[in-house]
Amino acid sequence: MKEKAEYANVIDMRTPTIPMASELKLTTVCNALGDPIRMKIAHCLASSGEKNCSAFEVDHISKSTLSHHIKILREAGVIQPRIEGKQHFYSLRKEELNVRFPGLVDMILNTTEEYVH
């Protein structure tokens, strides 16, 4: 039985954590969007829809740094993954964010490059 419990924990560790819409907190979302790279990722997803990691239009950063930024956005509830084989596709949680925080997605879409530094 002990082996089964350990195996279950491994599966749980691989499952991405995403808060439910009712659990989204404005301070957590704003903190996640407070970094210029994460704001660019969110803007990219808001304007173009679902993308995988290699398609993000952000500064030249390493894969590990990009993964870190994606993890922060995902755990804050800003983006959601869709896993297809070994590929991870991400999309902005537009509907959930608009219901919970009206106008937030519009603000992201209307933010120009000059305000993101």
UniProtKB/TrEMBL annotation:
Say yes or no: keyword Transcription present: yes
Keyword terms of this UniProt record: DNA-binding, Transcription, Transcription regulation
InterPro entries (alphabetical): ArsR-like_HTH (IPR011991), HTH_ArsR_DNA-bd_dom (IPR001845), HTH_MetalResp_TranReg (IPR051081), WH-like_DNA-bd_sf (IPR036388), WH_DNA-bd_sf (IPR036390)
Q: Where is the HTH arsR-type domain?
A: 18-112
GO MF terms on file?
Answer: DNA binding
- Is Transcription regulation one of the keywords? yes
The protein's matches in PANTHER family, at most eight in alphabetical order, are given as: TRANSCRIPTIONAL REGULATOR, ARSR FAMILY, TRANSCRIPTIONAL REGULATORY PROTEIN
NCBIfam families of this UniProt entry?
HTH_metalloreg
> What's the name of the protein?
DNA-binding transcriptional ArsR family regulator
Recorded source organism is Paenibacillus xylanexedens
